[in-house]
Write a structure and sequence with these properties.
Layout lengths: L1 H25 L21 E9 L4 E9 L11 E5 L8 H6 L1 H10 L7 E5 L16 H25 L9 E6 L1 H12 L6 E5 L8 H4 L3 H7 L2 E7 L5 H13 L5 E5 L5 H14 L20
Parallel strand pairs: 3-4, 3-5, 5-6, 6-7, 7-8
Antiparallel strand pairs: 1-2, 2-4
Helix pairs in contact: 3-9, 4-5
Bound molecules: 3-(4-hydroxy-3-methoxyphenyl)-2-propenoic acid (FER).
Length: about 300
């Protein structure tokens, strides 16, 4: 009897601890980026940024993209790839100049918070003159952001996967972007679920397809997606495009993270987007983070 009594305590303690940890998990949520997340730290290992040039059959000329490889990168290992897209006023250097993603990522790696990944920053304006000059809202320039779907799938991704030690399956390919690039990421990611399992839109622009066109089959999306991330500044004039997508996803039971933070249409919000999204991808996602917590896998 005494023996039984004694062994009951550890098991009771284990149960109590488990309940505490379940409660903690259930309360887990996306938090604002901590101070210093975007500040250069001395004496930590750094990734590297290359400029690549690829032949685009879609556009009919050579195009440029930037590629960040993480600290400790080795061509002998294999890496998942995040395609990170810019906005209507930018080009392949917009993230670098405005968001310093290499600083955010180096800091995350120093803390062991993100999976080692290759980040490709392309030029999403798929036309011969792809500079953000003149009238950036001109119809042909806006249309070139849609044309980029072909350039990305048929020209850039195959190039990256030939030149870099990239994993080539959908579960190791992510796409995210800011504003026009957020709309592109949602359109191209959700429109090509055989190619992308991780999709993020930061402050997505009016180029975002209407929800019914974006996700025509919620059950397929639910099954295929590893993570769908939608974030926006609460005071962004484009918030309605994120919100209508979120409401449709919620109504149709497609799990996703919807993160609205104080802010406008600027890099503060987009850096927070990258900081959070990059930590979540290419590893198991805690379902407690989903805005739509319909995660009972019944019927699957
Ligand atoms: C628009 C408003 C904003 C639009 C695009 C944007 C194509 C894009 C903004 C950005 O990328 O920052 O009406 O139409």
């Amino acid at each position: 009897m005494n023996f039984k009594k004694n062994v009951a305590w550890p098991s009771l303690l284990a149960s109590a601890l488990m309940m505490v940890s379940l409660t903690v998990n259930a309360q887990q949520s996306i938090q604002p980026s901590p101070a210093g997340f975007d500040q250069v730290q001395v004496s930590i290992p750094r990734g590297k940024i290359d400029t690549i040039t690829y032949a685009s059959a879609t556009v009919g000329n050579d195009r440029k993209a930037l590629v960040y490889t993480p600290p400790g990168f080795s061509p002998k290992k294999k890496y998942p790839v995040l395609y990170l897209l810019h906005g209507i006023g930018g080009d392949e250097k917009e993230w670098l100049n405005g968001g310093q993603p290499q600083v955010i990522m180096d800091n995350l790696y120093a803390q062991g918070k993100a999976q080692p990944m290759i980040i490709v920053m392309p030029n999403g304006r798929a036309m011969k003159d792809d500079r953000p000059t003149g009238n950036i809202m001109a119809a042909d320039k806006v249309a070139a952001f849609a044309t980029f779907e072909k350039d990305l799938l048929n020209d850039l991704i195959p190039f990256v996967e030939r030149k870099y030690p990239a994993m080539k399956d959908r579960e190791h390919r992510a796409i995210a972007g800011l504003s026009m690039g957020g709309g592109q990421s949602l359109n191209f990611g959700l429109g090509n679920l055989d190619k992308f399992a991780w999709v993020g839109g930061f402050s997505s622009a009016p180029n975002t397809r209407k929800p019914e066109e974006l996700v025509p089959d919620p059950q397929v999306a639910k099954k295929q997606l590893k993570l769908l991330w939608i974030s926006c500044g609460a005071s962004d004039g484009l918030l309605s495009f994120s919100n209508r997508t979120h409401e449709y996803l919620e109504k149709n039971g497609v799990p996703h993270i919807y993160y609205i933070e104080p802010g406008v249409h600027d890099f503060k919000v987009w850096k927070d987007g990258l900081y959070n999204f990059s930590q979540l991808i290419f590893k198991p996602v805690d379902p407690a983070l989903f805005s739509t917590a319909s995660t009972s896998n019944s019927g699957q």
